[in-house]
Design brief:
heterodimer; A: alpha/beta; 10 strands; 33% helix; B: alpha+beta; three-stranded mixed β-sheet; 6 strands; 26% helix
Chain lengths: 279, 109
């Protein structure tokens, strides 16, 4: 077990579909063994080394991109989303930023307009999923156990459980700004959630995730009168790391600022429909 | 701690390519724009290798500097982290190289 974050190599996600009130435990090994190498060379041979040091008995050239396996499955997920004609977003943020509250609020506010499903990633419990399920949307929980991020193969398994009619699928990733950044799930966009109760410098402390996100939701603005948080500085940091990031300042609690974010999501769903109709 | 996820993927990738031969050396290329910390990766690799075919293997990390181009003035320069500022003041940078995360080669026992 990793002593720093508690991860272990024993990643066996538990898939539970709350709406259907049944729980299926998949304990199969999460890694598949059919590899195709999109960018690497598929050869292996022994190298003879020059020089005074001992010749290595068996050196094998792999040229294997580490993330190739995850990327391949992410590609399949991307195709699944396209086939369903639905927008897929990957929501990330530190624990306590307000991801779950925001999503529960969004699902409740938009339930007449969106047919949406949420895939909840959490180390343990289905509490987040239960909160979101109160809005009536389909929710599926993935407990990663000791794992620190969701990967494409977990999403692939979740997709097999979800109903097909949704126009929006939201993945709420585990509360962690580091691990999920490198693992493409096949989503259209990453959305990073931060709050005014954190430091303004979050974006430059976690540049990788802010650079890979299309949207930054700055939450809990209702608390600004009680804090010394410098909003302009935070936005400047975010734009320094990602000049093209869309930023929405909002409060899941009071509802302030939510409409522009809903409009953004609706516009993306409309675009997707236009593109898939044109094909 | 994504270094652990990466370490696990490295071990899994090697296992799928060579079956159950024991490994004594893994040479990994790591681009500096990935924000992967080599020391953390080494720590996680050692932990994740316990009981695996890479147990006790040496991990050699070749760091590849980031090479970026300013979207505005087209100036190219090096970076050792995933963000920076061009001499012209702009931060909109195109990444040309430095995102590598590749198992170059291994040595089996």
């Amino acid at each position: 077990m990793c002593e720093i974050c508690g991860c272990s190599s024993d990643l066996t996600p538990v898939v539970e579909n709350l709406i259907q009130q049944e729980s299926k435990h998949t304990h199969s090994h999460p890694h598949s063994h059919d590899h195709e190498h999109g960018h690497g060379h598929d050869h292996s041979h022994v190298h003879e080394q020059d020089g005074a040091r001992e010749k290595p008995p068996n050196r094998i050239v792999l040229e294997q991109r580490v993330l190739a396996r995850n990327e391949k499955i992410a590609g399949k997920n991307r195709a699944s989303f396209a086939e369903r004609g639905c927008l897929a977003v990957n929501v990330l943020g530190t624990p306590g930023a307000g991801k779950t509250t925001l999503l529960a609020r969004a699902m409740a506010d938009q339930k007449e307009h969106w047919s949406a499903a949420v895939i909840e990633g959490d180390q343990a419990t289905s509490r987040d999923a239960e909160l979101i399920a109160q809005s009536g949307c389909e929710v599926l929980t993935l407990n990663t156990g000791k794992g620190c991020h969701l990967d494409a193969s977990m999403i692939e398994r979740a997709l097999a459980e979800l109903r097909k009619e949704h126009s929006l699928i939201v993945v709420e990733n585990v509360g962690n700004l580091i691990c999920p950044a490198l693992f493409d799930l096949g989503e259209h966009f990453k959305i990073v959630v931060g709050s005014v109760t954190e430091g303004e410098d979050k974006p430059i402390k976690y540049p990788y995730i802010f650079r890979s996100a299309s949207v930054f939701l700055l939450n809990k603005i209702d608390l600004l009168p009680h804090l010394d948080f410098d909003v302009d500085q935070c936005l400047a940091f975010a734009r320094e790391v990602n000049p093209n990031i869309e930023i929405f300042q909002l409060s899941a609690k009071t509802g302030e600022g939510l409409e522009p974010w809903y409009d953004w999501l609706n516009a993306r769903m409309t675009e997707l429909k236009r593109v898939s109709n044109a094909e | 701690m994504h270094e652990l996820g990466i370490a696990l993927e490295v071990i899994e990738s090697i296992e799928s390519r060579i079956g159950d031969q024991r490994v004594r050396l893994v040479v990994l290329e790591v681009g500096l724009l990935t924000a992967v910390l080599p020391d953390a990766l080494r720590f996680c690799f050692d932990l994740a290798s316990e009981g695996q075919l890479t147990e006790g293997a040496e991990l050699k990390i070749i760091e590849v500097p980031g090479r970026v181009r300013c979207v505005d003035c087209r100036n190219e320069f090096s970076l050792d982290r995933p963000f920076g500022r061009c001499s012209c003041g702009r931060t909109d940078l195109e990444w040309l190289s430095g995102e590598e995360l590749t198992i170059k080669e291994i040595e089996v026992v």
